[in-house]
Each structure stands twice: as structure tokens, then as C-alpha cells.
């Protein structure tokens, strides 16, 4: 395949990261190169609509070096919005979980261990907020159903 084309999707790639699918188009072997690629990848996200953000976060560039993985996890933090039921936050939480898992497998440094603990705590906090939101939504729905039933019963008793 043409070196100016993405090997994953075939799109034209002027940079290191494919702007269409978010995958790495040119090798990034060192930590500095992976951090550059990660910066380029995260620069794509603000320009994209939510559906595209979800797709990029799901299939996009995932570094291999533990220092770049820690930075990738930190880049997920602004995307996690507690108490908001949007798909981007959920996909960012999934990405952060995958980063923590990858770090757990390969990161034997104290910094990596601290990052793993922090990332897992952040994902748990997001999940708790999401479950609270679900409970509130179910409660409101049940209250509305109760009001409708009460209204129907009151109307039929007339």
C-alpha cells in the first residue's frame, strides 16, 4: 500500500495518525514518537462530532510504552463527565480501563502502579455516577407512571 495511505482504512495520511480512523500510519517506536502520535491523535477528538469521537476512542491509536500509556490515560480524564449519560464518556471509561489493563500487564514501575490505581479509581467513580443517574431516571419514570395510573383511577371513579 502507498506510504501516504492508511494501512487500516486506505485514507490519505499526511501526518503520523490517520485523521479518518485514528490508527497509527507511520511507525512510532520510541517514547517521544509515541507521545507525539498520542498528541496528534487527541487533537482529532475536539474536531469530531460525538459519534466520530466514540469511533476514534474505540479504534484509534493505542500506545505501547508505559509512559505513553499513562499520558493516554490522563488524556481520557476530560472526556469522562460524571452524571452525563453520553456515549463518549462511556467509551472514554472503557479506553481508560483498557489502558489500566495494559499497564497492569507491562508496567512494573512505581509510576505505572500509581497510574493504574488512579485510573481504576476514576473509572469506578464514573461508573458509580452513571449508576446513580440510572437509579434517578428509573425513579422519575416510576413516579410518572404512578401519576398516570393515579390520574386514570381518579378519572374512572367520577
List keywords for this structure.
2 domains; mainly alpha; 65% helix
> What series of H and E elements makes up the topology?
HHHHH
Count of the separate structural domains:
2
What is the alpha-carbon Rg in Å?
21 Å
Question: What proportion of the residues form beta strands (DSSP E)?
Answer: under 5%
Transmembrane segments: 133-156
Organism: Pendulispora albinea
Keywords: Membrane, Transmembrane, Transmembrane helix
Protein name: Zinc ribbon domain-containing protein
How are the elements arranged and paired?
Layout lengths: L30 H14 L5 H10 L6 H11 L10 H20 L3 H47 L2
Organism: Pendulispora albinea
Protein name: Zinc ribbon domain-containing protein
Keywords: Membrane, Transmembrane, Transmembrane helix
Overview of this structure, please?
The protein is about 65% helix and about 0% strand. The protein is an all-alpha fold. The protein is elongated. The N and C termini lie far apart (about 75 Å).
Short structural summary:
The protein is an all-alpha fold and 158 residues long. It has helices spanning 31-44, 50-59, 66-76, 87-106, 110-156. This is Zinc ribbon domain-containing protein.
